[in-house]
């Protein structure tokens, strides 16, 4: 399925501050696909994350590699929390 292919590609986008991929960190709030365009709703760890422009650029580049155009929306309404983080990442961080 396309969504799994997209998620796998997004796992190559590493958060420069935390050193883990954005999928495992729970930063992907929503994915929608229309033809060859992917809309991503991104939930940053903090609203003023200085790496957001870089992360958005990396997302766009990775999706372009597999033939998709993208639109990234930052979700400022919801709050990221450690509950969103993958179990394996939590273990690595001793959480």
Describe the 3D structure.
The chain has 95 residues and is of the alpha+beta class. The chain has one domain (2-81): Fe-S cluster assembly (FSCA) (GMP Synthetase, Chain A, domain 3). The protein is built from three helices and three strands; from the N terminus they run αββαβα. A three-stranded mixed beta sheet has the order 1-2-3, covered by helices on one side. A hairpin with a 2-residue loop joins strand 1 (28-34) and strand 2. The N and C termini lie far apart (32 Å).
How do the helices and strands line up, and which of them pair or pack?
Layout: H1 2-10, E1 28-34, E2 37-42, H2 52-65, E3 69-74, H3 87-92
Parallel strand pairs: 2-3
Antiparallel strand pairs: 1-2
Any idea what the radius of gyration is? Answer: 13 Å
Question: How far from one another are the termini?
Answer: 32 Å
Contiguous low-pLDDT stretches (5 residues minimum) are none
Largest sheet, spatial ordering of strands: 1-2-3
How would a textbook summarize the main sheet? 3 strands, mixed
Individual helix count? 3
Tell me the overall shape.
globular
The fourth-level CATH homologous superfamily is Fe-S cluster assembly (FSCA)
The helix-strand sequence is HEEHEH
Query: From the helix content, strand content and strand pairing, which structural class follows?
Result: alpha+beta
Total discrete domains = 1
What is the CATH level 1 assignment? Alpha Beta
Number of strands: 3
Strand percentage lies at: 15-25%
What name is given to the CATH topology? Answer: GMP Synthetase, Chain A, domain 3
């Amino acid at each position: 399925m396309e969504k799994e292919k997209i998620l796998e590609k997004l796992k190559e986008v590493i958060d420069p501050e935390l050193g883990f991929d954005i999928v495992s960190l729970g930063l992907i709030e929503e994915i929608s696909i229309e033809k060859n365009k992917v809309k991503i709703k991104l939930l940053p760890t903090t609203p003023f994350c200085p790496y957001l422009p870089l992360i958005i650029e990396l997302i766009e580049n990775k999706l372009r590699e597999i033939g998709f155009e993208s639109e990234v929306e930052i979700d400022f309404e919801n709050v990221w929390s450690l509950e969103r983080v993958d179990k394996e990442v939590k273990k690595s961080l001793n959480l």
